[in-house]
Design goal:
61 residues; mainly alpha
Length: 61
Amino acid sequence: MAGNKLRKSSNDRVLFGVCGGIAEFFGISSLLVRVLFVILSPLDFILYIILAIIIPNEGEE
C-alpha cells in the first residue's frame, strides 16, 4: 500500500464513490464495503456523507 492514497473511485461509483475508493485502497470487494456500511450502524449514513465531503476525487491532488 506504499504510495496508495485514499480517493473516491471514478470507476466504481454508486453515490459518490466512497465505498469504491475504500475498496480500491484496501484491495477488497466494493460490495463487501457497501454491505459493511449497511450492517454496522445507522450512523454510517452520517459517516458516509462526511467521507464524501473530505475524501478527494480520483485524479485530484
